[in-house]
Design a protein that fits this description.
- The complex is a heterodimer of chains A (388) and B (254).
- With 388 residues, chain A is mainly alpha-helical.
- Chain A is 70% helix and 5% strand.
- Chain A has helices spanning 2-13, 17-34, 43-68, 76-93, 111-132, 138-158, 160-163, 180-206, 209-219, 221-226, 231-257, 269-282, 287-303, 331-346, 353-360, 362-374, 377-387, and strands spanning 95-97, 102-104, 169-170, 261-262, 307-310, 323-326.
- The two termini of chain A are 39 Å apart.
- In chain B, strand 7, helix 7 (183-198) and strand 8 (202-206) form a beta-alpha-beta unit.
- By secondary structure, chain B is an alpha/beta fold.
- Classes of the chains: A mainly alpha (388), B alpha/beta (254).
Chain lengths: 388, 254
């Protein structure tokens, strides 16, 4: 603890925590940029990273929706699915506007064009859902979005003539690269770039006046409204914005970038719960926290498929090996559950919150207020008076 | 504290008019054909026994509720049935009976929400400077970076009053500003009310604290069973037989 204090004051007097934070962030980004060039890394690890990036987008955008705007939605995966399914269906079948007599054949739509249409579809449904949710709060909102999410999943499952049912739907591949290694490399950078772009967009919104209004709405919709915040507009806006982000990410991820097909199983409540769990563990009020929580959780869940424990003191197992191989299987999800229970009970702001607060210097501001308050006799008297 | 804009605000651009405003909840006539106008900066006390419709009337004026019938105009704009944010922007601000601080936001953020909502193009620095001035007047400037949920009940009341000033409203309605506050804090609030009034705003306050109401108000509106039973100078209202009946009369016991 002493060493940490000394380190802390050295940083405060030196480059400052905020700058150090940016430096750490830059180093992390550089690590991820370098990573696929490490020849010793397998394509499998890269795939794990690619899906880690995807889930980081899912969790951080959910953090904006639920953690910052207070809309505890279970529909996030469904919006992602709408983006992916719409892109897939349009790339395969084209669109026909019967009333206008207009028909666009699938051959005229590029893979990226389909992704854009999928994104718009997700945003449009987000608009409708956001509007329907205007009067619903907290538990009712959660229940509504669960129903919506299940409705969409069952539709995709049932209409198998169009959607492929439980076999899923293949989207038109976004990239056409023959060489597997090269393809994985490009996919990795594409998904990482997308994560950076999404995080930047989310961050810009969260730190703008809109972000302030969203937080005011989370705290108390009526009070926010009485203070001049157009709650209706911002509630719909946040649904449309986050739906479009996950619709876009989903359409890209399932266009053979991270996965070759979208399956309804992906839209189950369990999957949605995992998104929430990642965000909660990382810190649902922090976009970076939620993204890091998702990435780290994905990585650990994958790494724990097989854990090799090297025995100390020259001990051996009964067959003479010095290492013990543990395959936790589904137990790793149980372990994950324990982490989540711990987080909710003891660190409700997420396991990464203390680190993020430390870098953001928010705790310095807090300490200053506390010391100023203590030096203020008048305040002390007033507190006493209030307590009476 | 006094900005040029506030100084320029003349008496003529203050006009609040309620015409036969009624609100019915099922079989209950909560507000019954209430009419009154406010055309100049005034300190208006609104009193009435529990259930007289004071808070409902406030909710009707601030857009939280839609009147069943009747109209409300503010500075020539019809505001009844408009959403609260719109009414607020038109120039009518309110506090709540039970304080509604935005708990997990700092005091400064609480001030910036109305500041930026009302004045989206106002620079953050200017708004923050203004917020500091207001917080200073309210004696809570040292709590700027504190989360508002860490504030005491009285401080939250002050914060609510401060947030209102960021909106620069023409009419301010304070729902029970003195409820449950220490005398010392009451002085701060009274001081606030006077300062805001001097800046040319009409302030309407609902209160059960008769002493404060009679001391502070220049005009008194008395509600009973949702209807206005008296509207005038405090002394005249105090001796009004209908008011005495409503407060001391037998129908309280029914």
């Amino acid at each position: 603890m002493m060493i940490f204090r000394r380190f802390e004051s050295a940083i405060d007097q030196g480059i400052g925590r905020r700058k150090l934070g940016y430096l750490v962030l830059v180093l992390v980004v550089l690590f991820f940029l370098w990573f696929p060039n490490d020849a010793s890394q397998s394509n499998y690890t890269k795939t794990v990273f690619i899906s880690g990036f995807f889930y980081a987008i899912m969790s951080s955008s959910w953090a904006l929706l639920a953690g910052i705007a207070g809309q505890f939605s279970f529909g996030h995966m469904a919006f992602m699915g709408i983006g992916a399914y719409a892109a897939g269906l349009i790339a395969r079948d084209g669109i026909t506007f019967a009333m206008l007599g207009l028909s666009i054949g699938p051959e005229t739509i590029s893979a990226f064009g389909a992704i854009i249409i999928g994104t718009i579809a997700a945003g449009a449904v987000g608009l409708v859902i956001g509007w329907l949710l205007l009067r619903l709060r907290a538990a009712y909102l959660a229940l509504f979005t669960i129903a919506f999410s299940e409705l969409f999943r069952i539709m995709m499952l049932t209409e198998y003539d169009y959607t492929g049912g439980s076999n899923g739907l293949s989207l038109r591949p976004l990239l056409q690269i023959e060489d597997v290694d090269a393809a994985r490399q490009v996919e990795y950078y594409l998904m990482f770039g997308l994560l950076i772009v999404c995080l930047f967009a989310l961050y810009r919104v969260a730190n703008s006046p809109i972000g302030l209004f969203l937080r005011a709405m989370r705290e108390d919709e009526d009070a926010a409204s009485a203070l001049g915040v157009n709650v209706v507009r911002y509630k719909i806006l946040v649904f449309v914005f986050t739906s479009m982000i996950v619709g876009f990410a989903g359409a890209i991820f399932y266009s053979d970038v991270g996965s070759e097909r979208i399956i309804p199983e992906q839209l189950e409540i369990l999957q949605m719960s995992l998104i929430i769990a990642y965000a909660v563990i990382g810190g649902m009020e922090s976009l970076i926290g939620a993204a890091a929580g998702a990435f780290i959780s994905r990585y650990l869940l994958e790494a724990m498929r097989q854990v090799v424990i090297t025995l100390p003191f020259g001990m051996t197992t009964y067959d003479g090996s010095d290492a013990f191989v543990w395959e936790p299987g589904y137990w790793r999800f149980a372990l994950f559950g324990v982490v989540m229970v711990f987080t909710l009970r003891y660190m409700r702001n997420g396991l990464l919150y203390p680190i993020i607060t430390w870098f953001s210097e928010r705790d310095i501001a807090m300490k200053e207020t506390v010391s100023r308050r203590e030096s203020d006799d008048d305040h002390a008297a007033r507190i006493e008076a209030d307590d009476e | 504290m006094i900005t040029p804009r506030e100084l320029r605000r003349t008496m003529s651009d203050l006009h609040l008019e309620l015409n036969n405003v009624s609100k019915r909840f099922g079989g209950l006539q909560a507000v019954d054909h209430v009419s009154f106008t406010v055309t100049e900066p005034e300190l208006i006390g609104m009193i009435g026994p529990n259930g007289a419709g004071k808070t409902t009337l406030t909710n009707l004026m601030s857009g939280m509720l839609k009147p069943s019938s009747g109209t409300i105009y503010l500075n020539g704009r019809r505001i009844d049935g408009h959403p609260p944010y719109d009414v607020t922007r038109a120039g009518l601000g309110r506090t709540f009976q039970i304080t509604r601080a935005l708990g997990r936001m700092t005091v400064m953020e609480n001030m910036m929400v109305p500041g930026l909502a009302h004045n989206p193009r106002g620079g953050r620095a200017d708004l923050e400077a203004r917020a500091h001035e207001i917080l200073d007047l309210l004696t809570i400037d040292h709590l700027t970076n504190e989360l508002s949920r860490a504030l005491s009940g009285g401080q939250r009341k002050l914060l609510e009053l401060g947030r209102l000033l960021m909106l620069d409203p023409a009419v301010i309605i304070l729902d029970e500003p003195f409820a449950g506050v220490h005398p010392r804090l009451q002085d701060t609030i009274t001081n606030y009310i006077n300062r805001v009034y001097e800046n040319g705003k009409a302030i309407m306050f609902i209160s059960h604290n008769m002493g404060a109401v009679f001391e502070l108000s220049q005009r008194l509106i008395v509600l009973h069973h949702g209807a206005v039973i008296a509207d005038g100078a405090p002394q005249a209202v105090r001796n009004d037989p209908a008011v005495i009946d409503a407060y001391l009369g037998h129908d309280e016991d029914d």
